User: Fold ABC transporter permease from Sulfitobacter alexandrii.
Amino acid sequence: MTDTPSPDMHRAARPGRLQRMLESDLWWSFRKSKAAVGAAIVLGIVIVTAFLAPVLSPQNPYDLAALELWNAELPPIWMEGGQMPFLLGTDVQGRDILSGILYGTRVSIFIGLASVIVSLAVGVMAGLMAGYYGGWVDSLLMRVGDVLLSIPIILVAILVSSVAQAMLPPQFREAGVSMVLVLAIALYSWVQYARVVRAQTMVERRKEYVQASRLVGTPARRLMLKHILPNTLTPVFVAATLNFGLAILIEATLSFLGVGMPPNQPSLGTLIRVGNQYLFSGSWWIVLFPSIQLCILVVAVNMLGDWLRDALNPKLR
Assistant:
């Protein structure tokens, strides 16, 4: 008599999710790409140090009581006049540059990530409805997207940020400025996701499994979310990775122009704007080191996005 394998034996023989990931083509492509590995390591270091800023920073740049004006404009530690613990020097308010960079990176990452999540949610739903229903729904959503794309992204973000901050009560302006920036960036960025998902949805809705689901009476919402959406996510993830770096740059640009984060809640763009005022007075380190951190962060994100785009492209396999 032959023993029949039990369900427990089948589950034990089935590889786990982590094992399947380590054996996937995507992980193999990542390990073989030195640029992707290097970018991931650099990005990981930047993110970890940013979110460990309260532990690693010698000073809290958001605490006005911690600022020491007699230590203003100290040069980096390797230059004459540099002092510990200010490794990268201080600004005109006695704020430690390294502390400002770590806290500012955390703000920039939060705004960039939140804006990508908001624009991704809005764009995916708009693209699904436009591609599935077509007709006036498709025309309305795409014409709104065309209008937004006809205006430079910086102008859209400046307009939304300025109007929203002016409408907020004075006591909520500083607390809500980060949310205003997220909405300003997301208002423009959702169009790209909507176009990608719309194109994929128009292809998927003509396939047999969608037609069969309609015949058996599957609700449209369930059909879009459970069946069509998973088949449209690959290009969306690639676009989201690349737009993360773009969102960080937009936030830095808005802060540099004075319509972003305030000086008492500095992001990388705010630090660059403040330091730019003293560039030609000899205090070059105030603007140089935040600029380097911004470049490192954006380049690492874009390199990962380029690798992911190539790795998920079936024509390049």
Summary: The chain has one domain: 30-316. The longest helix spans residues 97-133. The mean pLDDT is 79. Residues 30-316 form a domain with the MetI-like fold fold (CATH 1.10.3720.10).
